[in-house]
Amino acid sequence: MRGVQNFSNARGMFAMRLRDKAGSLVDVPFFRQKRFVYALFFVIAGLILLSLYHVDSREKPSLTREERQWLEEHPVVRLGVTPSTRPLEYFGDKAQYKGMVADYMHLLSDRLGVRFEVVEATNLKSLLSKAEAREVDMIAAFWGNPATIKYMRFTRPYLVMPTVILVNKNLTRYLTLEDMQDMDLALPRSNAVIDYVRKYYPKIHIQPVYNYLAALLHVSFDEIDATIISLPQASYFIEEKGITNLRVAGHTDYRLYNRIATRADWPMLNSILQKGLDSISEAEHDRIYRKWVTLDQHYITFLLHNKVFWIYFISITLLILLFIGFIVAWNRILRRRVNASTLELKKELNARMRLLAAIQQAQDGIMIIDRERTINYVNPSFERMSGYTKEELCGGHVSRIRSDRHDPEFYDRLWESLERGEVWRGQTTYCNKSGEYYEVDQSISPVYDDDGRITSFVEVARDITERLRMEKQLRQSQKLEELGTLSGGIAHDFNNILAAILGYAELALPTLEADSRGRANMERIQSVALRAKEMVNQILVFSRRREPTRRRVDMLALFGEVINFLEISLPSTIALRSVADVEHAWVLGDSSQVHQVITNLGTNAAYAMRSRGGVLELRLERARINTNVMLTSGLLEPGDYLRLTVADTGTGIPENVLSRIFDPFFTTKPQSKGTGLGLSMVHGTVMSMGGGIHVTTREGQGTTFVIYLPEVRPAAGQERLPRQESVSGQGHVLFVDDEEDMVRVGEQMLSDLGYTVTGLTDSREALKRFQDAPESFDLLITDQTMPGLTGDRLLEAVHRIRPDLPVILCTGYAASLDMAGPGIDVKSVLMKPFDMARLSQTVARALGRSS
Q1: Backbone angles phi, psi at 709, to 5 degrees
Q2: What is the pLDDT of residues 234-269, one digit of tens each?
């Protein structure tokens, strides 16, 4: 009985009590009411559509005979599109060309009788490159500045997109840009609308974001107050991503204009397309626009001033009144369902928004693991970092991405701390899908449910492999700098000794008889000292305390010389391949040093292939470096370089050895096979020329050295150095050096040249002598590095007394000149060691005499 009663009650809810012809009340079933309401709805809707529909009276464009003939000769026009600009144009299923612009192109194709062949490009810049190369005939949607493009013609704008102010639905008031001075506005970086807002509304707080999707998410989460976006873009992102809590709060004066760009050498095509666009009616424009713009726009101000609006409003109001009875009947039943559905939708919306924010915004890898150590979720950043897809990782054990560089006890301690509810932070090593290791800085946090129980763990990981590699390279560069400083100091002291030896030898030679045993031995001493001088010079170049002799070096000729040398010296088991992909190549440096660089690298590569043979490849080519690049040797600045590549298929370099290959005296060869100075000299030479070195190697597969040398323009002719001869002179010279032997050598050389010399080893005593008789001296020759008073300080004190006195600064390494104070007037610089000819030339030049 209860079931029957309930059925009766339910039936009564879906019936209406009306009087029949006899005046009695009868129940009219609900389905009869429903048909009546539906019929009335369709009648009203038909009236509304009929009032909105009108037939456009425009006809096809009137083309001239020449324009019709041109279309017959060009039945196919290549149409350039950028498929990433949804909803303007993109490729749908089966590569179908779709979008707002595509609808216009289809309309023009039908109306003009021309077939468009679609040519795809990644972006507008790429599309303009194709247009300039005549790979496309027209661009469907050009939104840039036409004045900057000379090789294209442009129609008048046919698609004007207004921009609106989007806010969270929690903000109910309507806005203009003048009302937003105390609000935050999210705008994509490098977007033209930022310049518009900053120029006309400078008091608005602009929050730059990555793109429009990020801006919409910030506004959706109520993190930023509003954003400005075109209606088609807003409609696409909101509908595509399922964002439901945004609304249009106002309009701006900023517009986006789209034109058709055509080849400049086809003016007829531009004229035809303009006529086609002019033939498109306002109703056709409106249909295309409303097809793609589905966002609920706020047009209240417009509608209130539109008379037709009131007609529609009254009709819709009547329709609503007819449904009131039906709504009231369903209200009680739906209330419970709405409450339950609202709660479920709220949870689902929160979960979806959290997931969406994590996927779109997180730069670090995020992974969720349950207590069974099974991966439940990974974000796209983690997929890119690990090389696995989400489907490959989710449902699998977390050990799949762990490496074997940590022992099992490490992971046991990690999981014990997590089970206690602690947050674990540290650095671990992962293994990606290709088997390569990478370092991550990570934190793992427990996730609790409403009862306070741990349900899962969330891990946030950042790939720091590149950062650690750069830190390692920086430490190596600093280490080489310290070694250079040490070797430079030793070489400087030894240079003073060599200067004395060479000086005494040169002074002694004229006193010895020709063909005598003593003269032969003295010449031998001089030869050995010159060899030692070259070695010291190499060490100073390595330490960057002396600049090598810099002249233009023809790398192409030098490269050929080294190739010829290697072809003769290499065993038959090693194949030599050389490629010089340049017509001319010049660098500024010392030719012998550059020759030594290539030879050392080639012989080292041959040594690595001595047992099994292999292929030695040398390549010379140009390289343009646009940004700072971190190499093995350090940071390489932008510029034009010659890139020398020396690659072998030998044994490779072990990882524990790679960081020490440029250390002086370090070698893996047997004691009799190498000194360990080859690569250190290569490093010093390349760095002194302003270049860089990068090394890549794999054990058992080979090593590649890439040398970057700054390129210079070729000289007009071959440079020739004048031969220096001794020049005699007269005058009183004050010669100051803390080395007694250097003072004796200087005194004898200058005396032999005809000068009167006062030689002193104490710079303070020299200053006192000068103060006593400043007019008696014609020239001061002083060493730079001395105790008491350095050369630059002595020079400064002397010039305070007598500013016109010529001064020659003598030094063993160029870096010491950097310590000289500003404003120091030095007539010339004399590098140690020197011979009598160079000394005489320098003195004559300082005294203003012809040499």
Answers
A1: -120, 130
A2: 888 787 778 888 888 888 888 888 999 999 999 999
**Amino acid 491: pLDDT:** 65
Q: Is 820 or 142 the better-scoring residue by pLDDT?
A: 142
Q: Which helix (H) or strand (E) holds 531?
A: helix 517-542
The residue among 226, 178, 228 whose CA lies nearest residue 202 is 178
Say which residue, 671 or 76, is predicted with more confidence. Answer: 76
The model's pLDDT over 325-367, given as tens digits with 9 standing for 90+, comes to 777 777 878 788 888 888 888 888 888 787 777 666 778 888 8
The two tokens of residue 475 are 């430490």
Q: Which residue has the tokens 């425009």?
A: 58
Dihedral angle of Cα 581, 585, 587, 590, to the nearest 10 degrees? 90
Residue in the structure block whose two tokens are 């056709």: 284
Residue type, 445: S
Task: Give per-residue burial for 678-713: e unless 16+ CB within 10 Å, then b.
Answer: bbbbbbbbbbbbbbbbbbebeeeebbebbbbbbbbe
Phi, psi of 415 (to 5 degrees): -70, -30
Residue pLDDT, tens place only, 214-223? 888 889 888 8
CB 791 within 8 A of CB 813: no
The helix or strand, by DSSP H or E, that contains position 355, with its residue range, turns out to be: helix 307-361
The continuous run of DSSP H or E covering 503 comes out as: helix 465-508
- Considering only CA atoms, which of 112, 101, 103, 104 is closest in space to residue 77? 112
One-letter amino acid at 307 equals K
Residue 798's H or E segment, with its range, is helix 791-801
Asked if 105 and 45 touch (Cβ cutoff 8 Å), the reply is no
Residue with tokens 């310049």: 195
Distance CA(215)–CA(500), nearest Å, equals: 75
Report strand pairing: 639-648 vs 702-710: antiparallel
CA–CA distance, 97 with 113 (Å, rounded to integer): 18
Please tell me whether the overall predicted TM-score, pTM, comes out greater than 0.70 for this model.
no
Angle in degrees, 0-180, between the axes of helices 791-801 and 763-772, rounded to the nearest 10: 10
Query: Which span out of 320-329, 722-731, 764-773 was modeled with the highest average pLDDT?
Result: 764-773
Please tell me the distance from the alpha carbon of residue 491 to that of residue 478, in angstroms, as a whole number.
Answer: 20
For residue 286, what are its two tokens?
Answer: 């409106």
Q: How far is CA 468 from CA 365, 433, 434, 441, 551, in A?
A: 18, 21, 20, 11, 39
Residue with tokens 């006062």: 758
Find all residues with CB under 8 Å of 373, minimum gap 6, and list them: 397, 398, 399, 415
Calpha distance 463→430 (Å, rounded) = 9
| DSSP-derived pairing of the beta strands 184-188 and 205-209 | parallel
pLDDT in tens, 118-167: 999 888 888 889 999 999 999 998 877 788 888 999 999 999 888 889 99
DSSP three-state, residue 803: coil
